[in-house]
Amino acid sequence: MVQDGEHVSSLESQTVAAHSAYVEALAAWEKVVHMASCPICRPEGLTDKDHERRCDSAELEKERRRIAFRDLCDELGYVPEGHGIRLRTSACPTDSCVRGGSDDA
Ligand SMILES: [Zn+2]
């Protein structure tokens, strides 16, 4: 078997891209879920049914990307690090509604 360095590095960049796509989908899903319980973030006129549908499709997308990322990691043999991968923080304008809002001092 021949080790193809270029193949490995392009696989690694694919994996990094798949990871950031997954992180994006994860953030989008968390945001959709958050909207259901947050009076500030919840869009006006959003029905429970609409919300449920949005949650379902966001979760499906998140799972799809997670599996794609995991498969690439399996193929690569390790989880790539140090490529600016980081989780985005919540986009909620009132941070307190995410954390429970208990520190009111
Ligand atoms: Zn909120």
Q: What would you call the shape?
A: elongated
For this structure, what is the CATH class? Mainly Alpha
The CATH topology name reads: Helix Hairpins
CATH architecture: Orthogonal Bundle
Radius of gyration: 18 Å
**SSE order in H/E notation?**
HHH
- Poorly predicted runs are 98-105
Give me the count of strands: 0
- The amount of beta strand, in percent, is under 5%
- How many helical elements? 3
Structural overview:
Helices cover 64% and strands 0% of the residues. The protein is an all-alpha fold and 105 residues long. The chain has one domain (7-84): Helix Hairpins (Orthogonal Bundle), CATH 1.10.287. The protein is elongated, with a radius of gyration of 18 Å. It starts with a helix and ends in a 6-residue tail after the last helix. Bound molecules: zinc ion. Residues 34, 38, 40-41, 92, 94, 97 line the site of zinc ion (ZN).
Itemize the secondary structure elements and their pairings.
Layout (H helix, E strand, L loop, with lengths): L4 H33 L10 H29 L18 H5 L6
Helix pairs in contact: 1-2
